[in-house]
Amino acid sequence: MNPLPLDHVLSRREVLKLAGLAAAGISFRGVGGAVSVHAAETKAAPAAATLAPLNHFPRMVQEYFVGRVREIQRHADERRAALHSKGDAEKYVEEVRVKIQQCFGPWPEKTPLNPRVTGVVERDTYKIEKVIFESRPDFPVTANLYVPKGITSPRPGVVGTCGHSANGKAAEAYQSFAQGLARLGYVCLIYDPIGQGERLQYANAELKSRHGSGVSEHLYAGNQQFLVGEFFGAWRSWDGIRALDYLLTRPEVDGSQVGVTGNSGGGTMTTWLCGVESRWKMAAPSCFVTTFLHNLENELPADTEQCPPRALALGLDHSDFIAAMAPKPVELLTQEKDFFDTRGTQEAYTRLQQLYRLLGAEENIGLFRGPTYHGYSPENREAMYRWFNHVTKISDARTEPALTIEKDETLWCTPHGQVAEMKPRTVFSFTQERSRALKQKRGAVDGEALKAAVRETLRLPAHEGAPDFRILRPSSGRHYPKKFAATYAVETEPGILALVYRLDDASLVSRPPRGVKRAILYVSHQSADAELRNEPLISQLIAAEPESAIYACDVRGIGESQPDTCDPKSFLTPYGSDYFYAIHSIMLDQPYPGQKTHDVLRLIDWLLACGHEEVHLVGRGWGAIPATFAALLADGVKQVTLKNALTSYSDLAESEEYHWPLSCLVPGVLAKFDLPDCYRALAAKQLQQLEPWGALAAEG
Predict the structure, then answer these.
(1) Whether 389 contacts 397, CB under 8 Å
(2) Which residue ranges make up each domain of the chain?
(3) Contact (Cβ atoms closer than 8 angstroms) between residue 570 and residue 577
(4) Closest to 329 (Cα-Cα) out of 282, 272, 293
(5) How far is Cα 269 from Cα 263, in angstroms, rounded to an integer?
(6) How far apart are the first and last CA of the chain?
(7) Alpha carbons 643 and 3: distance in angstroms, whole number
(8) Residues 512 and 504 sit within 8 Å (Cβ to Cβ)
């Protein structure tokens, strides 16, 4: 990852809304047997538009996640501290290898590489071959192979992985280390990452990315992949494994002396490759290794590929991917002024020192800290050369040779710098194909099997009893459909509060009054406060059910607990705070939609404990997803209304363009069920669908 890549600084600051297209004209009838209709829209009162948003708990979600990850790290540190012998250390190495496989596997079948050399650049002491190979069928990888001239016997080989540079392998820092290695006698294969260099996945007619190269393409392709049970980091790692496969076919390479190095996002891939591939002899990840906790505490977003599913739940940290390679030689490269916290690099090094010491190979773990900012600086590259030279004995050079930086076009493997001209397969095409295959295999799911699948996939915890709650000062002057609004903060689990407004014509500053049989609970899209003013459905519900108590809520991370973390006003950006907690939820193996569904279920428990006997559950947009799941599982829900609910996860997985955020997606869902299964089941609870949204219609 490079959250703030030096050569693509704006990628983190782009304000690209994940939700921006109106839902006009998108509706249908017969979703899961339910009726689909249109609701009339009205404009907000001018005075209401000037109100500042309410946000009682802007730090709640951040502190909740920090607490969870701190506890995980504490247990993991206790496990490491219990290592006292070589046998203990060997057992630990085997444990982390198994856990890493649980995050990244299973791997696809190795298919023919079909390599071809499309050109050769001749230089004084080395040549650069322009190579294209296929890591998967019809999925080309563009690479440059730097080969020393005049060699008479096989030389050590290195796979070079690139960070977040728009031009991939042609970026100055990356071609520098590849050329430097070649001048020192190594054979180096450096390849373009997916979505960078010559491998754009969303290329337009001008061969430019429709979404932005690097971070943006990684998020766009990777988020969608979760629906079909794929992990973009595993795809990226597979490219690295197949790059090694190709390197080992070359007669110039000594297969017993192969290493891997890269910086930033390439440091990520180097780290992951240490954990998933056993053939490396040596490694040097630069400007990545720290701790998951430091990144979280420092509010530093990471790309999809940098957040392995279940990694935190399994107690893994960056250091464990290096531990999986122990006791082979690895040097951690960091920078004093890096945004990847060098304190975390020191922690990782200290852990690895203990492990390597028990394995009798303490000299095989190293740490070098450069003096500058994030990047594969000359100081860090020279540290890598020295480390590899120490391992291979091929050279005693301690400084970088003089380099000649090539133009991008000189290093292109394709005629115009993009494989898209060849019309190959894209990541999306595989996601689409996988979704269709899962749909055919899955069939319809219903009854108790559906409920069990929802509970399992969402990782819903058991819950019973009435949750505790706070009575906050009532909201006034907010232009709600009723004159007064009592405000409650319901504790759905320790550290998490769901905000609830109860509307009434009379002032209410105490617990909800008893004696009202039916409650309407509206689950907001993004802000109950704003939607109480602007969403006409709420007024329609009040008019249709004048005897019912009316409540509106924000689940965690929405409205009154919308995080103010990561970057200012970043909530709706692809790399912002909403994404930040959704991706950490995947690493915790507790999908964000599942956490929000738990909030709704606990609010239903609370309403019943307050004396209501039945609930009409209403959800809109993003809120329709947890409302759907909660309605399916809660016996107290007797009626369901969904507005702007997602048509299906299959629609989203099979559409190349989409506008739903990661916080609404459930990893692996399409292997078990889809939303239409839930909608069919909810027909028994008088489900009414209003203006369903497809893949492109998630409003911002």
Answers:
(1) yes
(2) 35-40+445-687, 83-435
(3) yes
(4) 282
(5) 9
(6) 26
(7) 35
(8) no
C-alpha–C-alpha distance, residues 19 and 700, integer Å:
4
Task: List, in order, residues 6 or more apart from 46 with CB less than 8 Å away.
Answer: none
Q: Would the pTM count as exceeding 0.90?
A: yes
- What gap in Å lies between CA 583 and CA 586, rounded to an integer? 5
Q: What is the DSSP track for 46-79?
A: GGGGGPPPP-S-TTHHHHHHHHHHHHHHHHHHHH
- Give the distance, in angstroms, between the CA of residue 109 and the centroid of all CA atoms in the same chain: 25
Decide: helix, strand or coil at residue 233. Answer: helix
Q: How far is CA 401 from CA 40, 161, 179, in A?
A: 70, 20, 9
CATH superfamily of this structure's domain 83-435:
Alpha/Beta hydrolase fold, catalytic domain (3.40.50.1820)
**CA distance linking residue 433 with residue 443, whole number of Å:** 16
Judge if 35-40+445-687 and 83-435 fold alike in CATH terms: yes
DSSP H or E stretch at residue 518: strand 518-523
- The partner residues of 504 in beta bridges, in order of sequence, read 484
CATH topology (fold) of 35-40+445-687: Rossmann fold (3.40.50)
- The radius of gyration computed from the CA coordinates of the chain, to the nearest angstrom, equals 27
> What 8-state DSSP symbol labels residue 310?
T
pLDDT tens for 6-65 read 333 223 333 233 333 222 222 222 333 333 333 333 344 445 557 888 999 999 999 999
Q: What is the pLDDT of residues 355-385, one digit of tens each?
A: 999 999 999 999 999 999 999 999 999 999 9
Identify which of 19, 57, 130, 54 has the alpha carbon closest to the alpha carbon of residue 495.
57
Question: Is the alpha carbon torsion for 177, 182, 186, 192 positive or negative?
Answer: positive
Neighbours of 378 (CB within 10 A): 17
